[in-house]
Structure formats: C-alpha cells, structure tokens
Design a protein that fits this description.
globular; 2 helices; 3-stranded antiparallel β-sheet; 14% helix; 7-stranded mixed β-sheet; Immunoglobulin-like; single chain; KRE9 family cell wall biosynthesis protein
Length: 182
C-alpha cells in the first residue's frame, strides 16, 4: 500500500516537473473548413514548468489515435510556445481524408533534451473529399472515433505513413496531454 502511494506521488511530481502545453483550440466541439484552415491555440499550465522552457515546436495535423497516429501534414514548425500562443494553418488539402471528427493536432517539442508530444482533442474538418488507409481506420476504431458501418472509401495515397511518435531523434520520448473522445 505504501509503495503504491509513493508511486502515485512520484507520478504527480514527474507531471509537475514538465512544462505543460494545453490546447485551447481546437477543442472537441471545434469545426473547421478545409479552405479556411485550422486555428491552433494553447496556454501553459500552472502545474508544470513554464512553457517558455519548451524548445522549438512543430505542429502536425494527425488522425488515428495517440497510440497509432498518422501525420497528414505539417501545419507549422519552429514555433516557440512561450512567445507565440496561436496560429492559423493554411488551407488543408481536401484529399487528406474524409470530412468528419477524425482529426487532432500533435505538438512535438523538446524539454530538457527529450522529445515531448502534446495532443489536442479530436475535432471536425469539413470540406474534405479523401479517404483513409485501413491502418488509420483501425486506429480510429480502437479510439472509438470510427463507426463500423461507415461506407467511406479508403485510400492509402491520401495519408502519410509517418508516425510522429516513432520519428523521435532523442533517446527518450514523453507523451503528455489528453484527448476528449466526444
């Protein structure tokens, strides 16, 4: 029992030691149109180190799940989260996937020489006409974001097969952040 309590206290300390980026946009209720882009905004958490301690950050449009994400496109790179707290992407290529609530933002940054990943909630993009590879559909299904009766076609050519979390150059990777599923 005491060991379990120490483990939970250790997790709390570890979480508070990280600089924590929290997405304020997109939220699970956000709806964007491919032709107008996506507004991405964030703030630092009061629980962790200041977000000014995060390194240059790259933001990706992704689908799938945090356990098996597929990068659809890079939205912007080289942002310093402590000085810039919002941007709007350019137009989203309509062939990147189908319209729907299948998308999330991944922010890849560094903190104390380790790669750290933050995830937005799933959100909706309308005006898309593409399909997903079966691996993306499987990951969405596992996350509860894809209906088994969906008739949308799949297209392996419409998605990149790069998994952001597996392309880390640093020796350690930390995933933080949370997603709202509905």
């Amino acid at each position: 029992m005491q060991l379990l309590l120490l483990w939970f206290l250790g997790l709390g300390w570890l979480r508070s030691a990280f600089a924590d980026l929290t997405f304020t946009s997109p939220l699970s209720s956000s709806v964007f149109t491919a032709t107008t882009g996506i507004t991405v905004a964030w703030q630092g958490s009061t629980a962790g180190a200041p977000i000014s301690q995060l390194g240059a950050t790259t933001f990706y449009l992704c689908s799938g799940s945090t356990a098996s994400s597929t990068t659809l496109m890079t939205l912007t790179a080289g942002i310093s989260p402590g000085t810039t707290t919002t941007f709007t992407s350019g137009e989203i290529d309509p062939a990147k996937g189908p319209s729907g609530k299948y998308y999330f933002i991944t922010a890849k940054t560094t903190y104390q020489n380790a790669d750290v990943y933050y995830y937005s909630d799933y959100f909706t993009i309308n005006g898309l006409t593409g399909g997903f590879a079966s691996s993306v559909i499987s990951a969405l299904s596992a996350a509860g974001m894809w209906a088994a009766t969906s008739t949308l076609s799949t297209s392996a050519a419409s998605t990149s097969t790069t998994d952001v979390a597996t392309t880390a150059e640093a020796s350690s990777v930390t995933e933080v952040g949370s997603m709202a599923l509905s």
